[in-house]
Write a structure and sequence with these properties.
With 115 residues, the chain is an alpha+beta fold. The chain is built from one helix and six strands.
Amino acid sequence: MHTKNTAARFFYGLLWIGLFLISCGPPPEKACSEDRQCAKGEICLQERCLKGCRQHTDCGEKQYCRDLQCNAQLCTPGQTRECYDGDEKLVGKGLCKKGKQWCDALGTSWGACVE
């Protein structure tokens, strides 16, 4: 009789855990026909509100929108930094000198190393 009680408790315990996991799953996606029907940080895509962006202003500070996703900026737009593509031992010798790179307008990449 003790074994039957233990097995029943185990079964009901698993059942409750299963119900708990199902009820704590991701929330259902909201149906939509346009972006304004979705919460902030979401866009209407294939009639569902999904996390994403359509333009850079949809993203937070220091982020940009690419392929419907907000991405962190690599640099601050307009920022400059020194650069040198050659052997560091040769900097300042002859024609070898450091150049400058500029961050693009979206903060997504550094430009070419120029004098």
